[in-house]
Amino acid sequence: MIINLKDIKVLKNYSPRKEVNSEAITNYKENYELGDNLPSLIIQKEEKILVDGFHRYYALKELEKETKIHTQTVDIGGHKDFLVTMNCHS
After folding, report:
1. Structural domain harbouring 40
2. How many structural domains compose the chain?
3. Would you say 77 and 47 are in contact if contact means Cβ atoms under 8 Å apart?
4. Is 77 helix (H, G, I), strand (E, B) or coil?
5. For the domain that residue 77 is a member of, what is the CATH number?
6. Which CB contacts under 8 angstroms, 24+ apart, belong to 44-47?
7. First to last CA, the chain
8. Which residue from 5, 23, 33, 80 has the highest number of Cβ atoms inside 10 Å of its Cβ?
């Protein structure tokens, strides 16, 4: 699915990490600037909530790259269902 970066919702409690790694973001920015083909961001299908790819998301935001990006979607229900699932696996 192609989506505008600005349409992706980022909820901090969806990330398995407590903080983002600035070094990882810098590395992804360099990769994007070199034109490397990086994995798609993964978003929750209905609400367009970021599920995986937080560092790549922040790298794209910092680069102010073209806002339309390729994403993969997962159908995991609403965000409350997802949070229950995350809590069960942490």
Report:
1. 2-89
2. 1
3. no
4. coil
5. 3.90.1530.10
6. 44/73, 44/74, 44/75, 44/76, 44/79, 44/82, 45/73, 45/74, 45/75, 45/76, 46/75, 46/77, 46/78, 47/9, 47/78, 47/79
7. 29
8. 5
Return the pLDDT at 64.
85
Mean per-residue pLDDT for 9-18? Answer: 77
Handedness of CA 64, 13, 77, 37 (dihedral sign): positive
Q: Which tens digit of pLDDT belongs to each residue from 59-82?
A: 999 998 667 888 999 887 655 555
Give the three-state DSSP class for 71: strand
Q: Are 42 and 72 in contact (CB under 8 A)?
A: yes
Tokens of 70: 């390729």
Structure tokens at 26: 């810098």
Give 10-58 as a DSSP string: --GGGSSSSS--HHHHHHHHHHHHTT--PPPEEEETTT-BEEE-HHHHH
